[in-house]
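Write out the 3D structure for:
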Amino acid sequence: MPGERYRAPARLVGALAKIESTRALFILSAMTLLGSCLIFPDINWSPLAYVTLVPWLVALCTARRSKLVYLTSWLLGLGYFFINIRWMIPVTLPGYVALCLYFSVFFPLAAWPIRHMYQRHGVSVALSAPIVWVAMEYLRSIGPLSFPWLLLAHSQYKFATLIQISDLVGAYGVSFLVAMVNGWITDLLIQPILIWRTDQATRLPIGTLTTVILFIGALIYGSAQSSRRYFTDGPRVAVIQQDYPLFVDAEQAARTPLESMLDGYLILTRLAAAEKPDLIVLPEAAMQGFINTEFINAAPDDLSEIQRRRYPRSYGRAFMNGMQNWSRRIRDGFQNIADQFNVPIVLGSSSMEWKPTAIPPRVDAYNSAFLIEPGKKEPVARYDKIHLVLFGEYVPFRFSHRWLYDYLNGITPWGKLGIEYSLSPGSRYEVFEFNAPSAGGRRFRAGTPICYEEIIPYVARTFTRGSGGDFDEKNIDILLAISNDGWFLHSAELEQHVAGAVFRAVENRIAIARSVNTGASATIHPNGMIHARVRLDESRLPALAAMEQELSALGAAAEELGGHVDQPVEYDVSLRKLAAALGTKFRPAVRALGPEFLFLSDRLERMAAALAGATAETRKKGVADFLDQIDNDRRTIERWRRRPETAPGYTIARLRCDNRVTLYTRWGDWFAQATLALVAMMLLDWLLRRLWRARMHTRNKEVAPHAH
């Protein structure tokens, strides 16, 4: 009509038909599985994270058969965990399988509301996918089976600008943005996007608009918050790292003497102490001992109770006396260094106490961190790990259902030996205080999360927030994260662990000093930037090559020895030649690399000494073990060359403090909890629609006969 504005008709820009093919669903899920294997450390192709969920999201939204969608989603979840946490296999194959089976269920659980909201309401996947994904990440990160590992956010731990929003919404906020981009791309592929043209404007789809606003907003916020202008000087902290892989197999574990391990840590601690740091930090359970005063000073009767309740009869009084003396030797060794160099030391070890007045009377063991100060006769503070790992550190039902506990304990590697290895959780977030001469004598306060606690968000937050009611000031200045990742044999777990630690720093604006056996030991700024790492210096590479050459010569000598196991005279001559080569050539070559590496020669010398006076059969096995260890050491040298951050060493760096108390520190996981509430509403909608459909179906059946 005259004077009326012209409006162009709605125009279909893109859409995707229903997927009928079973093969197509499996291929799409496999594409997402492949991407998930590439986005996390060690490979860490982080940009791929923004598209890796797209094939799966396309499949679950457009597939015609729901059951097949949930089956492929479950298989995707199974592969997601089976591949990315395969580093658990050397520690516990049954635990690895059980964990993967359990957490794989979260993938079909995520598919359910996303598919429902798209198919029943046409909701943009850019809106539903991040909400559901974060809710599922949060669900698997809480409770006794919590596993906040492989969060989508962890693929972005090196993207400093983006991850700054963690101080508002936690790591889950970063996962939200990455999932949102995946959902937006999915929308472009499957949504029938309608555009209306007028002479005034073009309406944009809400998913696109929301994605653009939130992502750009996060980058702007991150650019401002990642600045170092908020930093103040903190203490100079030395972190110690040794390279002692740990093994469940007792024979393999016994190859490295405890004395060599202790000497290695003492050597590195002395070297670091000579550079006058304000504090030295050693890894979790650096030594196998119980250095708490209650155990070291325990009376004979108390030791007897500990032995009776924790160990089989074969572990007699001599064992307990030896353990007490060994523990005293550990504590005195580090106390002497603290006294000599006037530097406090944080040492990871164990504690054990006989509690006759407890109900019921019991022996409690703890995974502990100790603060050793110069001039003291015993540690001045102790933190006992609060968040213990199920089956890794404790067996459930210890006091509630003893029969079930005894059964479960009996199927564990240590329980089979009759050892009750379960630890007890600590009860207090103990704060360590120390003076920093390099910062004008200022007194700093530190929290010490142990191992897996570094990954659990609430632990770092509780240390930072404290238990008081005033949250305008932080309870601590820094975090000292100690861990022992030697069980995982230099796998991707090491860097995956670092990725999680980065988010604890940003969430609470707190500096972290990490001391980890086998790596990766580092210091992290409050903005998540990894500041300094322990690594083998390139200047040592020639010494490493010389040691490798001597190791090859030892291998040839051991081969010659193996050829004489049935010839006693020739065998003795070859063994003397081998021992001479160990003492006059290999040990000097190792010492030239550094005294902290002497455990390599200690181990081979000990194994060679065991070859003397043996029978032909035991000689044969002993030589085979010796050659196997030489092969292991060759691979170790090659790894140190290829991955120098896994070698023994230490680094000293000045930590940076940030006095800001973040929204996340105050409110915790409010954002993830909000997504969980929204998912609950989605599922309620699904339930109400099912009930309405069932009611209408019943009504139609009742009306049908009357219609005829």
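The chain is about 50% helix and 10% strand.
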